[in-house]
Amino acid sequence: NRTGQQKLKEDGYSYDDEQEVGLPPPSKSIFQLDPFYEWLQWKGGPRRPGPGLYNLGNSCYLNATLQCLAYVPPLAQHLLRGLHSRRHQQMTSPPPTTTSPHGQPGHHHHHHHQFNAMVELEQLFSRMHSGLSQGPLSPKVLVANLRSLGRHFCVGRQEDAQEFLVHLLTAMASCDVRVAPKKLRHQGAANRGEREKVRRSLEMTSSVHRVLGGHLR
User: Which E.C. number(s) belong to this protein (predicted)?
Assistant: First the structure.
């Protein structure tokens, strides 16, 4: 019998036998698990604490959560690659300027840039770990978009750190799914129910779930 650790390394899914937990492994993955094993330790040795974050009006719950996540080695080192930002930019960049039949330049299609939690975290963590900051950093974009994470959150009001963490991790997993290759996101889903099933399966292979996910038994 293989141990749970061996099982995890071989199929990139679960410490337990799938039939034991009653959950089939996802047929497709956004991220394989092996790289996250390599990032369990900081490359180049332990990191010194970086700059703090400004309190933007009762935002200490948000700051504490972000600072904890910024020093989880596998998650932080994954985000410091900037992979999500590059994928997001590729998907949202406007097409080249078109030319009219008369040779005159056409118009760009304007894209509305929505808040993206993963992009903001990649940028913030990059600044926190750069060693270049001379003082605290401002998480103003995340604070300004609190209601994008949870509709009941209110700027300037003290919120629960654990509740904020749950909403932030959910948003991060959703961001990973949105920038996954189209063939992964569709997988032949014919209706809304099937698409939702695919989405949930993919979220289990997001960077957040690879580092922090699990199943209660």
Answer: 3.4.19.12
